[in-house]
C-alpha cells in the first residue's frame, strides 16, 4: 500500500505544483507578480477543500460500514479509481505539451479583464481536481481508511519527492525531462489501475455478484502465496513451505493486483486491460501521424 500511496501522491502533487508553478512563473515574468498571491490563495483553499472531501468521504464510508455494505462501496471505489487512474495517464500524455500555453492564455484573459475572482477560482479548481482524485485513490488502496493512508510514509515521501522534482524543474537543473518522467510513472500507475480492476472483480465474485466459469485457473500458492496466512496454511497442509514468502505476495497484490489463484475472468480482465491501453495509445499515435501528414500536404500545396 505504501508504494502505491507514494506513486499516487507523487503524481497528483507534482501535477498540481507544475500547473501552479507555470502560472506563477509566467505572472512574474510578465511583471504581474502582484497576482501570484491570488493563485496561491486558490490553491490553498483547494487543499482545505480536499481535506474536507476526505473527511466527508470517511463519514460516508463509516455509514456504509455500519449498514454492513462497505464491501459494495469498496468495489465501486476500486472501479472508479481504476477508471480515473487510466484517464489521468491519458490526460497528462495529451496535455503535457500544451499545458504551459493553455495556462498562460487563461492568465492573460484574467489579467486583461481584471478578473481576480476568476484567477482564484481557476487555481482552486485545478488543485481541487487533484485533491479529489487523491481521496478516491487512497480510499481504493486502503479499503476506506483514507486518514491512515495519507499519514503513512508512502504518502509523505511522495509529497516530498514532488516538491523536490518541481523545485529542480523550475530552477532549470533537472536533467530528466518531465515527459520521460511521466512516462515511467505512468507505467506504474497503469499497473496499479489494472490491479484495482482485478481486485474489484475478485471481490464481486466472492460476494456472488458475478459468477465464474473457472474459479481457479491455476494455483501458484506453492511458489508465491498472496498472503502470509496462505503461506502458513500451505506449510500446515503440505509439510513444506512455499518458495517465496507470503509477505512478498501481499506487496505484489497491493501494488499490481497479484493473485496466486485467480479466476479466468480476472486473468482475462487483466490481460484485456493492457490490450485496451495498447490499442488506445496506438490509435492516438496513428491519428497524430495522419494530422502531421495532412499539415505537410497543406504546406507543400501552399
UniProtKB/TrEMBL annotation:
> Cellular component terms, GO, for this chain's entry?
high-affinity iron permease complex
Q: What transmembrane ranges does the database entry give?
A: 6-27, 39-59, 71-90, 110-128, 148-169, 181-201, 267-286
Keywords, ordered alphabetically: Membrane, Transmembrane, Transmembrane helix
What is the protein's membrane topology class? Multi-pass membrane protein
The family database entries (InterPro entries) matched by this protein are listed as: FTR1/Fip1/EfeU
Tell where it localizes: Membrane
- What GO molecular function terms would the record report? ferrous iron transmembrane transporter activity
Per the record, the similarity remark reads: Belongs to the oxidase-dependent Fe transporter (OFeT) (TC 9.A.10.1) family.
The protein in question is named Iron permease
